């Protein structure tokens, strides 16, 4: 009798904690410009709030919860880019950040995204991108860093031209008096706008090219393309258009130190989810692409391939992460 009772309460426990929670009322992600002033302020305040909560990652250099995310990305950088799980790893990462903003900082909205294609000019030298709302000093993320000349060519390994910044951001909510990075060392948030990269890499025609791919493997490859600047790739747009050579967002390891990272990767994820939505039956259950970076003839990821984001959340399989409204993730986009 007692045993039966114990067993049945165990079963109940399993139902309560072990079974998947259905995704009801997923937060609806919107483009930054679709948020009203109050929603924008609430988001920016929640980001600041994360920097006031103690780190849990156990990683060196991480002091607060904002740093935790940056440090986890940094620790995994060599194994999460130019691989089949690139887009899904970053999906999990952004969704976990969204969850932290909501659950630890009382944010009631969803993770916004930045549709940079709206800002991309066909005139590659145009600096109109600097004027767009996302960089607003009051209702946005602030603008460029102060101009810093590069004297040592080793600091610019790709010999990128057209840099316009490189120093600490000069206005907005993330200037050094209001916001400091701790990883890998204490310092200010830097930006280094390069108009030609932003304008050419963020074109809607490139997004269309990525979204016209017939399967996950080709989608993933079109999304990242090659690690060079001779061919554009949409993932590089925000990173090198806004981060340039010396900016935080342009640093492959430390890029999540720029709060804009999450709006840039939010948009990359929207592109993935919209593509999946064209044929959900297939695209909730299809992955591919190399396990090792750019190893295109080697072993590929499969649905049960597991990714981890350190202490930020539990491990998840790629199949779980394919579903934005499944047992691990729960959000949607206003476009889908
Ligand atoms: C993003 O912007 C481009 C260019 O204006 C537009 O064609 C596209 O529909 C936009 N996408 C979304 C989801 O707003
Ligand atoms: C950049 O320029 C240096 C010096 O001219 C050259 O050695 C190097 O190969 C160039 N790098 C790239 C990626 O073009
Ligand atoms: C991995 O996928 C690529 C592209 O589909 C394919 O060419 C390659 O043979 C696959 N690797 C293995 C080990 O099957
Ligand atoms: Cu990354």
Describe this entry's structure for a reader.
- By secondary structure, the protein is mainly alpha-helical.
- The protein has a single domain (25-333), classed as di-copper center containing domain from catechol oxidase (Orthogonal Bundle).
- It contains eleven helices and six strands.
- It has a two-stranded parallel sheet.
- α4 (86-105) crosses α9 (261-277), α5 packs antiparallel against α8 and α8 packs antiparallel against α9 (261-277).
- Mean pLDDT is 93; it is low at 1-18.
- Bound molecules: 2-acetamido-2-deoxy-beta-D-glucopyranose (3 copies) and copper (II) ion.
Summarize the structure.
The protein is mostly helical and 336 residues long. It is 36% helix and 4% strand.
Helix content: 25-40%
The side-by-side strand order for the widest beta sheet comes to: 1-6
What is the percentage of strand-forming residues?
under 5%
Number of strands: 6
CATH superfamily: Di-copper center containing domain from catechol oxidase
Going by helix content, strand content and strand pairing, the class is mainly alpha
Low-confidence stretches: 1-18
């Amino acid at each position: 009798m007692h045993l039966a009772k114990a067993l049945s309460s165990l079963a109940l426990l399993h139902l309560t904690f072990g079974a998947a929670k259905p995704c009801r009322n997923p937060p609806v992600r919107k483009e930054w410009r679709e948020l009203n002033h109050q929603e924008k302020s609430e988001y920016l305040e929640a980001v600041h709030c994360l920097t006031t909560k103690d780190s849990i990652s156990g990683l060196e250099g991480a002091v607060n919860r904002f740093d935790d995310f940056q440090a986890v990305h940094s620790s995994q950088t060599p194994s999460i880019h130019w691989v089949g799980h690139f887009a899904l790893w970053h999906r999990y990462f952004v969704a976990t950040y969204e969850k932290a903003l909501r659950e630890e900082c009382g944010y009631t909205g969803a993770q916004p995204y930045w549709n940079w294609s709206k800002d991309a000019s066909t005139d590659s030298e145009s600096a109109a991108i600097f004027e767009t709302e996302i960089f607003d000093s009051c209702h946005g993320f602030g603008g460029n860093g102060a101009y810093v000349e590069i004297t040592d060519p080793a600091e610019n390994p790709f010999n990128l031209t057209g840099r316009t910044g490189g120093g600490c951001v000069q206005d907005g909510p993330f200037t050094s008096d209001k916001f400091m990075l701790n990883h890998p060392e204490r310092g200010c948030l830097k930006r280094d706008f390069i108009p030609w990269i932003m304008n050419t890499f963020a074109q809607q025609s490139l997004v269309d090219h990525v979204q016209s791919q017939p399967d996950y493997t080709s989608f993933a490859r079109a999304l990242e393309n090659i690690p060079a600047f001779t061919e554009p790739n949409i993932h590089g747009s925000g990173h090198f258009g806004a981060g340039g050579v010396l900016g935080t967002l342009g640093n492959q390891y430390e890029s999540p130190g720029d709060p804009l990272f999450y709006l840039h990767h939010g948009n990359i994820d929207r592109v993935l989810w919209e593509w999946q939505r064209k044929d959900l039956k297939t695209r909730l259950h299809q992955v591919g692409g190399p396990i090792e970076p750019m190893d295109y003839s080697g072993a590929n990821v499969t649905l049960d391939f597991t990714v981890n984001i350190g202490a930020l959340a539990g491990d998840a399989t790629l199949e779980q992460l394919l579903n934005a409204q499944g047992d691990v993730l729960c959000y949607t986009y206003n476009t889908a």
